[in-house]
Every structure is written in structure tokens, then in C-alpha cells.
Amino acid sequence: MPNTANTPAIARSAASAERAHLATVRMSTADIARFLQDNLGQRLTARITNISDPRQVGKWACGDSAPRQDAEDRLRAALQVFQLIQDAESLYTARAWLIGMNPQLEDEAPLTVIAEGRFRDVMVAARAYVDGG
Questions:
Q1: From CA 25, how far away is CA 4, in angstroms rounded?
Q2: What is the pTM of this model?
Q3: From the CB of residue 12, how many other CB atoms can be counted at a distance below 10 Å?
């Protein structure tokens, strides 16, 4: 017999994940860079994308230049996870979740794990967080 006590939490995570995915694929790279710059700052956004000059994030946000594909992949992954947490909690919780140590990620910050290219690990941890685990 299925455990119906967990069904609302799982549905919450699935719905939040779907909305986060749709938001991410519909945004331009410039819009994503601008959103992350506004909510995480240039330095943290640069750290996620493994670039040394945080001012480059501002150029992406203005549309003056475009990131390399690996940097765009990291921007999109960070936005999707941010949106997932924000949808279920709040903007401030999403920011704190991304920069704080996470026990499901061996006490690494999710933004560091995204910078390493381990997007799926971060998404699994984000869904677990939303589901209360």
C-alpha cells in the first residue's frame, strides 16, 4: 500500500521542479546572468561559472557578450536549482541554500558543486530539501 503521507511533499517537489525547468529554458542567457547577479552578486555568479573576472557576469547580463557553453550550462543549472528552492520556500532561502554547506553534498556548498559540473547531485539535494529530507 503506498504511503499517502509523503504524497503532498513529493507532488510539491515535482511541481516546483517543473516550474523551475520551464522558467530556465524560457530565459535568455543575459536574463539568467542578470537574475543570478541580482540575487547572488557578481562574485558568486562568477564562482559558479569558473571565471576569474566577476565583471564578465555584468557583460553577460547586459548582453554585451555571451558566456562559453560550459559557463552557460552552469548558469542554467544554478538558476534552475535557485528557482526550485524559491518556488517552494523564498528568495532568501534559495540564496542561503545555494551558498551554505549541505550535508547531502558532503558539506560542500551547492554553488561549489555546480561549479564542478555536478548538476544532478545538486538537483537531487534540492528536491530532497523541498521534500523535507
A1: 32
A2: 0.86
A3: 16
Could you give the CA distance from residue 107 to residue 38 in angstroms, rounded to a whole number?
26
Q: Answer for the pair 117, 68: CB distance below 8 angstroms, yes or no.
A: no
Rounded to whole angstroms, what are the CA distances from 24 to 1, 41, 66, 103, 107?
36, 19, 17, 26, 26
Q: Provide the grid cell at 103.
A: 550535508
Return the amino acid letter for 20. Answer: A
Tell me 104's DSSP state: G
Integer Rg of the chain from CA: 15
Reported as a single tens digit per residue, the pLDDT across 24-50 is 788 999 999 999 999 999 999 999 999
Predicted confidence band at 2 (pLDDT cuts at 50, 70, 90)? Answer: very low
Residue 63, φ and ψ in degrees, nearest 5: 80, 10
Closest to 78 measured CA to CA, from 106, 108, 37: 37
Residue type, 121: D
- 105: burial class by Cβ within 10 Å (0-12, 13-18, 19+)? middle
